[in-house]
Amino acid sequence: MKSNRRIFLGQLGLGLAALEATGQTLNPSKPISEEAFWDNVRKGFPLTDNRVYLNNGTFGPSPKVVLDAIKTSLDKTNTSGEYGHTDEYRKVLAKFVGVSEEEISLTHNTTEGINIICWGLDLKEGDEVIISLHEHVGNALPWLNRAKLHGIKLKTFEPGTTAEETLDRIKNLVTPKTKVITVPHISCTLGQVYPVKEIADFARPKGIFTAIDGAHGTGTFDINYKELGCDSYATSCHKWMLGPNGSGFLYLKKEHLDRIQAYQVGAYSDAGWDLYTTPPSFPAYNPTAHRYDYGSQSTPLYAGAAASAEYHMALGKDKIEKRVRELSQHLYTGLEELNGYLDILTPKEVQSSICMVTFKPKNLEYREFSKKASKAGFRIRVVPESQLNAIRISTHIYNSKAQLDDFLKFTKEALTT
């Protein structure tokens, strides 16, 4: 732990002003406690103090260093008249998740990456796709649409309460017609972690493509896509990465580039084209995943996305994961003490949870609970999806145990009075 990590933002190369924006110091002779360290990290976020933000699963507010990177790039592009390029930011994002830049396509969100895979795969009528009953609309609707238009068959399952049980339920659905398994890394409903590595290891020798909805995985785990072993992983930068809205990326294994057909193309998607030949020619696609993103990209947004990745790497991906787990477990333990007044729906198994806890109040309709929480100064999310009618709490590094204790106190009062 280098000087209690006081120099973490110095590693970003953003200067002393950025370092001071987090409340950190450069004096190693004055160690601070773990909670004090995270309190100082919180000072680097412009979040107001008039409410407690517990909805990172929907949107992760950016720290000041990310906002500064966006503003600097925005100023530069508009004062120079040069809108810039995103190649350098693609490199940073690839490094962040442990893959090569040739395997990264820049997208606007997770759903865009999912659609690239869903429509690019060569699937025929009757081919089977295994999908869970706890999908976000961004992963459900593309596959439902393809089933509607092309006659593929979706086979659904309810996740188990343990990783092993979930894996077994997937295995039991596989037939010779199974072509794809598509699941979230972490579900938006229960915050349940799916055993992605084990799923990929099972699917690979059978020639089954694994397409992961990683909206909630990147920025929570100390993640390395190569180690996960999945074939594709679509993610957003605006959730757990704490990057700007409107930025994301898709990882696709290099060996599958010619398996996933590019349908929407433009500048940079090609390896050459010519309208003057007879007939006009387009001999080949870009040999990298860049074939799936094209035309002008927002340099400021991807400058912010890269800054958020650098922020995580400098602070320590492993330390962030540890803190995220610690906060979530603190909340889970506190909710367990309210047994009788609510049902916790998120699995208790450590490997099946990380950053979100979903529960269902017993004595109060879930939307009424949400209204009361809002009036009390808590930003939370209701979960009508998957017929749960529940409450989801998601926390990140800008949250504190004291805030969670305040929420637990509110929850007890709301459900017992």
Automatic annotation (TrEMBL):
DNA repair among keywords: no
Phosphoprotein among keywords: no
InterPro entries: Aminotrans_V_dom, PyrdxlP-dep_Trfase, PyrdxlP-dep_Trfase_major, PyrdxlP-dep_Trfase_small
Domain Aminotransferase class V intervals: 85-406
SUPFAM superfamilies: PLP-dependent transferases
Pfam families per UniProt: Aminotran_5
Domain of life where this protein originates: Bacteria
Keywords linked to the UniProt accession: Pyridoxal phosphate
PANTHER family for the chain: CYSTEINE DESULFURASE (PTHR43586), ISOPENICILLIN N EPIMERASE (PTHR43586:SF4)
Protein name: Aminotransferase class V domain-containing protein
